[in-house]
Design brief:
The complex is a heterodimer. Chain A is mainly beta. Chain A has no helices and 12 strands. In chain B, about 0% of the residues lie in helices and about 50% in strands. Classes of the chains: A mainly beta, B mainly beta.
Chain lengths: ~110, ~110
Amino acid sequence: AQSVSQHNHHVILSEAASLELGCNYSYGGTVNLFWYVQYPGQHLQLLLKYFSGDPLVKGIKGFEAEFIKSKFSFNLRKPSVQWSDTAEYFCAVNPSSNTGKLIFGQGTTLQVKP
Amino acid sequence: DGGITQSPKYLFRKEGQNVTLSCEQNLNHDAMYWYRQDPGQGLRLIYYSQIVNDFQKGDIAEGYSVSREKKESFPLTVTSAQKNPTAFYLCASQSPGAFPFEQYFGPGTRLTVT
């Protein structure tokens, strides 16, 4: 079955530390990839997306992600986190261009200490 | 303002009662989705609808039912057959023309069944 795995369930960082959240998926075909973020008390919102072209994509708030096809990975990065980045982060994969269904990972809770 | 509304924000029910969660969108999107979010499990797809008067089961449809009589509305009924209904429910919509299929989420309804 198609699945998405996020390796880190709970990450605690100090402000200004660098962030990398792992995401791997199991699907051999063409995929579209997403990272969503859920800030406390807010809607789930899109951070960034990849569907073709440059495998390094940039999103909002200084986040970026790199698609490595050979590793089936789409890791999220940020060079220097802020307290306001405290949130839950979800990786999602659209494994078929025929439907818009997304498969989500388990989520990673990021806590940034001021 | 365009967006997705879900009501109510919090809902409490007794075991054995059916309950209907509302989801309305004014984005003119064709596709709508219902997810369930549980801690450590990410978002799991309950039902989705790509067009009015048509809907499909997702990965965890048992104990749930939906209807799609209008483009802007996609209510979800949690029936008494759902064994573990207490959860956070998210509704999303999507424009099929907006490749690569970004989904827009509502604020969610937290259902507690005792």
